[in-house]
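FORM 12-B: Structure-to-Sequence Request
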């Protein structure tokens, strides 16, 4: 299978699959053999547009009738859990969008199935594959950075459907990202406010096993027309800031303002900056969707463990439930 396209089935053809995932799959060594959705109009549209051979309204029928190597699922946590379980039991690798399940018990069950079936469930935490966050992780692990001592993040949104969906579909991203950047952590305190049933906010503090202390602020009272995401990692005499996924600045001990008549940038001292090329308006690789799908397809082809798998995701699900318990 490593030298031939991975035979894929897709479950859920809504906006995220259609707008973010499907187009990216076109450039990968994968053959989309079948698609599944309960919406017949959407099913016919995607099948025709991408010339996909077979379509289904029940993923169980798809698994039974198709010879697939892997499945990508993007619906909701309950379907993600049920479909991932069915895929693993059928001997298929599965990519489930976040959040992959509702409960710790479901996550533990999927992790156990992963071990016993030798197939893997990968979860779509795209920020682990986002360009700026990957750069930040690399910088933070350099000896010169001196370790991450403090972590500060904001991750806001506009009005949300409910507190529960905000926690399990939104905040979960930055709990997982914090684990990726500073290691395993424990939430120590949560404060929150509520304006109404769709507008609310949270401030959580944590301490990591590495000694990093940090906080994450996340609320549904912002507007999506301006930047709503920022992360700062504070090291020893330097920091790295990721602003809205598109920009990263690595501030190092540099020269004082001015610099004299022959001022010049100091290669090893002054600030390093990277940002997205806005002129390439059709390229959104920096968001991480391309690389996470590439990792899933490659791991399925090579029958190896993907870098984000269910045993690792279980730790994030436990964090989400710890967070939820602290605000009850």
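FORM 12-B RESPONSE
SEQUENCE OUT:
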């Amino acid at each position: 299978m490593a030298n031939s396209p991975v035979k894929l089935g897709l479950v859920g053809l809504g906006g995220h699959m259609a707008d973010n995932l499907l187009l990216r799959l076109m450039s990968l060594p994968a053959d989309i053999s079948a698609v599944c959705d309960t919406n017949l109009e959407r099913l016919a549209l995607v099948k025709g547009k991408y010339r996909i051979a077979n379509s289904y309204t029940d993923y169980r029928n798809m698994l039974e009738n198709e010879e697939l190597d892997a499945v990508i699922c993007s619906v909701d946590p309950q379907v993600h859990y049920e479909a991932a379980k069915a895929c693993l039991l059928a001997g298929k690798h599965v990519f489930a969008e976040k959040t992959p399940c509702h409960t710790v018990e479901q996550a533990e069950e999927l992790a156990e199935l992963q071990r016993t079936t030798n197939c893997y469930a990968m979860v779509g935490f795209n920020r682990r594959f986002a360009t700026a966050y990957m750069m930040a992780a690399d910088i933070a692990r350099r000896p010169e950075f001196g370790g991450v001592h403090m972590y500060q993040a904001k991750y806001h949104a506009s009005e949300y459907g409910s507190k529960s969906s905000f926690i399990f579909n939104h905040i979960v991203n930055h709990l997982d990202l914090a684990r990726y950047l500073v290691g395993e952590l424990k939430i120590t305190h949560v404060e929150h406010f509520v304006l109404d049933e769709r507008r609310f906010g949270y401030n959580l503090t944590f301490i990591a096993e590495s000694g990093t202390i940090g906080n994450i602020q996340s609320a549904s009272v912002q507007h999506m027309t301006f930047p709503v995401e920022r992360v700062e990692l504070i090291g020893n005499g330097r920091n790295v800031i990721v602003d809205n996924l598109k920009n990263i600045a690595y501030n190092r001990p540099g020269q004082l303002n001015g610099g004299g008549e022959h001022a010049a940038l100091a290669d090893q001292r002054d600030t390093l900056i990277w940002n997205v090329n806005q002129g390439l308006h059709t390229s959104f690789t920096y968001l991480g969707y391309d690389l996470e799908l590439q990792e899933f397809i490659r791991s399925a082809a090579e029958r190896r463990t993907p870098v984000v798998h269910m045993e690792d995701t279980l730790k994030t699900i436990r964090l989400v439930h710890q967070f939820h318990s602290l605000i009850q």
